[in-house]
Design goal:
760 residues, alpha/beta, GIY-YIG endonuclease, Rossmann fold, 6 domains, 7-stranded parallel β-sheet, 6-stranded parallel β-sheet, 30 strands
Length: 760
């Protein structure tokens, strides 16, 4: 069916333009446009050429036809075969996460840079073997050496790359042209899209699954088949498997069966740095039908991969959260490895959760979602416990090995014994032992979420907010501040618990740790991995490769060293200070600490030797540390959920963070307080009906009160009902739009983050 008009979202992020504009469709484009097409249109009083997205069609219009402007052209790379689903997904994301439609479309409709196929030329012999031999003899008799040499090569291999012939035989283009003219050979030209996978393909034995693994794979595939039959069953499965239990083998087995059914699969990973390691395993099974998407690819290489997906040239894509929007037409499975990782949350608008978007895409294409982790997010485990997800357990290590032995070292006792170094006596003793045995050590400095917390070196006391149960952050001027409700108190001169004068902000870094280790163990070969040592391209892989090849004895680093790496000769892992993430001013700090400690501990003893782990802490009794030491997720979940329910944090309830941002500190504060008043006004009826339905916290200055010359305040809204938070978001958006119309000089922005991963 042909249409006369198209509804277009102009590709400008400003909220004032967040609505469709109607344009006439010229006759020349009648059959070329589809939902999601990127087009060029005249816009505004000066008819400036702008790009826009087609989100609808019609044959009627409320405006006089003569007043409508016409679409000028389809932009380069501007047609998307999955545009219908993409537009629906973008609309859902706009409504759920509070971005403009233009930003949502830009996120969902993948790279629009025109894919440029590369040219591959080959030379093909047209003569039979006997005729070719006659010609070769003729060339030899005439001393036409180059022609004779070329023909002899083609008689051995009748089809060869053009460039190889030129380089190998030193044959010139005119010689090839002469033989082509005589009908002896032909030059074939094929266009192809680049595959960034450069791993040499090799045959690998089929996956051999344990009974536990096979039961999971078969269970997921049974659910897939049931969904195709229209049955109402859970679409999402959570695989809770201890470190080293073989989750990747299960993923491969599931994907193999999905591909056999003519569907495609998306394999998501939390860190771009893991792509190569994971890709090798998948490429051995799926050959060039698998590809990769990550930030190391150029825009044109990314476009090539999206085009290959559209054409059906690949079945599996591997990458971080952006790979989720690969334009596959028949997605059968989306797998999220290490699903608990915070990198799955998009921190720019729209602030989407990859898990939620994966569920939405799978429901639109009738596929399944598989989540995997040794330390699942509380949100996912909660959904599994509620029966909304399937829950599977992998309880044994794939190699048959045992989990490492874990010791908790009380740093308060170390101080009392006069040890002020970063290594406890026990950890120092074990490092020396491993050096003597030629085994490797990993030392982990947990800096994630660190935001200037204060602690007492004598008793381990950390000042906390009396209203929010999160650690207070140390700010300029000696203030201790809660970034949730704004509560503040002065920095104490001595510990309120034990009276010790040794209470202060805590600072420790990998560079200081490396310096100490070099002095303590002068003969040890030490590698450091952190943001400073991995800035240059390839440096990350170089460090990991050196350590894997046993060119170093000790690897010290931040959380990047614990992300799924497998080093068989590592038999000792030391966590230098567990408290650094535990005392972040964030309600998720205990969960993050448990996850990081469990993942770090899982690096030890993965080969033929047993492993040891030492966790150093000022709070050895804290449940997150105790349960991480025993890798007891179930007990940690039980205790942490008591805290979440008591203080109404996710997943017990939903949380909306509203950020108010302005270049004027006065405006940021003013509009933050106006927003709080507006929220209370918007929800009067709901709160009168049920006083517990909503809880407002703040406004308070954000953790980074000033960033890039902009002042930031935050308001938190808690509710058991997600739709109630949507109402709050919609109300603030509408008020902001009215304010913009009333004053074009309005300089204040509003951003929304539902169930935020990071504290503001």
């Amino acid at each position: 069916m042909t249409y006369c008009y198209a509804q277009i979202i102009i590709d400008i992020s400003h909220g004032r333009l967040d609505r469709p504009f109607t344009y006439r469709i010229p006759e020349a484009l009648q059959n070329d446009l589809c939902l999601g097409s990127l087009v060029v249109v005249p816009f505004g009083k000066g008819d400036t050429k702008r790009k826009g997205y087609v989100i609808g069609f019609s044959n009627t219009c409320e405006y006089p036809d003569g007043k409508l402007k016409e679409i000028e052209a389809i932009a380069s790379g501007g047609t998307d075969v999955t545009g219908d689903n993409a537009v629906r997904l973008a609309l859902w994301m706009k409504q759920r996460y509070g971005s403009t439609m233009a930003v949502a479309l830009r996120t969902v409709l993948t790279s629009r840079k025109q894919a440029k196929p590369c040219e591959h030329r080959s030379i093909h012999l047209l003569l039979s073997k006997d005729d070719a031999e006659k010609k070769r003899h003729e060339f030899a008799m005439k001393h036409q050496v180059a022609r004779e040499r070329l023909l002899r090569e083609l008689m051995e291999a009748p089809d060869q790359p053009y460039s190889l012939i030129i380089q190998k035989l030193h044959v010139t283009a005119p010689v090839i042209a002469a033989l082509k003219k005589q009908g002896i050979l032909e030059v074939r030209t094929e266009m192809f899209l680049r595959n960034p996978v450069s791993i040499e393909k090799c045959e690998e034995a089929g996956i051999r699954l344990s009974p536990e693994q096979r039961a999971i794979s078969e269970g997921v595939l049974q659910d897939f088949e049931a969904l195709q039959e229209g049955k109402n069953i859970p679409r999402v499965s959570l695989i809770h498997g201890i470190t080293g239990s073989g989750k990747t083998e299960v993923y491969i087995a599931i994907i193999e069966e999905i591909v056999k059914r003519g569907r495609q699969a998306i394999m998501l990973i939390p860190e771009i740095s893991l792509t190569y390691q994971t890709l090798m395993r998948f490429y051995r099974h799926f050959g060039d039908r698998v590809s990769v998407m990550n930030s190391t690819l150029s825009e044109s290489e990314k476009s090539d991969q999206f085009e290959r997906a559209r054409r059906g040239e690949i079945d599996v894509i591997i990458g971080p959260r952006s790979a989720l929007f690969t334009p596959f037409p028949r997605i059968g499975a989306i797998i999220m490895d290490e699903e608990h990782e915070s990198s799955y949350k998009n921190e720019s608008m729209p602030k989407y959760h990859t898990r939620e978007v994966a569920e939405k895409i799978a429901s639109m294409q009738n596929g399944v979602v598989v989540l995997g982790s040794a330390t699942p997010s509380l949100e996912s485990y909660y959904q599994a416990k509620e029966g909304k997800y399937r829950l599977y357990e992998l309880s044994r290590r794939l190699t048959g090995g045992t989990l490492p032995s874990v010791e908790i070292t009380d740093l308060r006792e170390e101080l009392r014994a006069g040890n002020h170094s970063i290594l406890s006596r026990r950890l120092s003793e074990l490092v020396s032992d491993r050096l003597a045995k030629g085994q490797q050590t990993m030392l982990f400095l947990n800096r994630r979420g660190f935001s200037g917390f204060v602690s007492c070196r004598s008793c381990g006391f950390v000042p906390k907010c009396p209203h929010c149960s999160v650690s207070l952050s140390l700010h300029r001027g000696g203030r201790l501040l809660c970034h949730y409700c704004g509560y503040e108190e002065p920095m104490p001169d001595k510990c309120p618990e034990c009276g010790s004068p040794y209470i202060s902000g805590f600072h420790a870094g990998t560079e200081q740790a490396e310096s100490f280790l070099s002095r303590q163990f002068p003969k040890a070969r030490i590698l450091r991995m952190d943001a400073d040592t991995t800035r240059t391209k390839g440096s990350y892989e170089k460090i990991l490769s050196s350590f894997a090849n046993e060119e170093a004895d000790i690897l010290i680093g931040t959380q990047m060293i614990v992300k799924g790496h497998d080093f068989p000769n590592v038999t000792l892992v030391g966590i230098l200070l567990a408290d650094q993430s535990l005392n972040a001013s964030d309600y998720r700090s205990a969960e993050r600490t448990f996850q990081l400690l469990t993942q770090a501990a899982g690096r030890a003893g993965r080969g033929k030797y047993p492993g040891d782990v030492v966790i150093q802490t000022y709070e050895p009794e804290h449940y997150s540390i105790v349960h991480a030491a025993h890798q007891n997720y179930e007990e940690f979940y039980r205790e942490e959920m008591v805290y979440r329910k008591l203080l109404r944090y996710p997943p017990a309830e939903h949380l909306l963070a509203i950020q108010i941002i302005s270049r004027s500190e006065e405006h940021a504060s003013l509009f933050a307080h106006k927003t709080r008043a507006l929220l209370e006004q918007l929800t009067v009826a709901a709160r009168e009906k049920n006083p517990d339905r909503l809880l407002f916290i703040g406004p308070a200055p954000a953790v980074l009160e000033k960033l890039r010359d902009e002042y930031r305040y935050v308001i938190y809204v808690k509710s058991p009902d997600y739709d109630t938070l949507i109402v709050c978001k919609d109300g603030v958006e509408a008020a902001a739009e009215r304010a913009v119309k009333a004053s074009r000089e309005m300089d204040t922005m509003f951003q929304f983050d539902f169930d935020p991963i990071n504290a503001f």
